[in-house]
Input
Amino acid sequence: MRPSSIVTSPALPARVAEPMDVGVAVGAVPPFGSMRRRVERQATAGIASFWWPDHLVGFHSSELWSTGELARLQPDPNAYADPFLCMGACADSVGSALVGVCVTDAVRRMPASLAQTAMTLDHLAPGRVVLGLGAGEHANYAPYGWEVDSPAARLEAAAAQIRRLFDDGSPDERGAVLGLRPPDGSPGPQLWVAAHGPRGYEVTGRYADGWIPNFLARDAWLEGRVAVLEAARKAGRDPSAILCGLSAQVVVAADHESAHRLLEHPILRAFALLLPPQRFVEAGSSHPLGGGGLRHLVASKDGGGQLAAARAVPFEVVHDYILHGTAEEVAARVQAYDGLDHAVLWDPVPLVDLDAARTSGAGVLEVAARLGGRS
Output
């Protein structure tokens, strides 16, 4: 199915939704001066949180990256700065907004070190630090010599230890301790978990302050929310104290067809390679890599093969995965996630088209205003 045969107006009816907090992703690329100025402008516009990815390897091979316009300014797709240093560099530039990593893992980084880093940052941004934790991506640890038998088990153990270190400054039975405590008046850093399945939902409900999944379609997200809150209840925690978030790719354009043209680009199609095979089966196709990219893809060694795989992603898959259209349409898609407390928007348009990025960047701010009840 080509773009011309896909519905070009939102299928969702207009409705009144509760205001939510909206955050944006920030590129983890120096120089820090321009990064601080950018987040300061967005904070002034009402953005509630700022998030940095934690990557060693990019999503795109050099061959694929070179097809987009950002490659003219940033030739290396793997140029990522440490997210925690980015958070610290911008802590004073974002006002009362949260600063977070979306997300790191406990494969490359020891849980106690993650807790120490988050607690240290809390002294720079008291009560505004979010440690986003996930199971990790194969590309960020396997090429560097790390192996893990069960990423889910590693996530569970890490979340339990980090929760304990955040909440209790005394040594445990083995002597593990985090003596650094929050500054006066700060509740300390928060732990948000990027969970996408039953085991992760249990972990989130038991240990986390927030849930921040990516890739989840609306129905799957609604099911996950129920599971997370039920897990919290079973663990004796207050379900209403857990923030339910969503990390989502968005393409905002002047009209729906312009958004479709951007979705056709292989750089944007490539993000769908991270989806599980079932999402391709639902579109009557098969995954170009034979399996979900989170467990297979290493873009820095896949070269032209990844470019070919990106071009093979059915338009229907990327169409359903990336929220797109006008600001009004994108806001309506996000509002359909009933019970969503905090949306984190990732704008990939600058990777593809620097002219279109101006419209998309302004559109993201409009989406945030609509979702936050300011428009």
Strands lie at 21-25, 49-52, 98-105, 129-134, 190-193, 210-211, 243-252, 323-325, 342-346. The first strand starts at residue 21 and ends at 25. The longest helix spans residues 354-371. The chain has a mean pLDDT of 93.
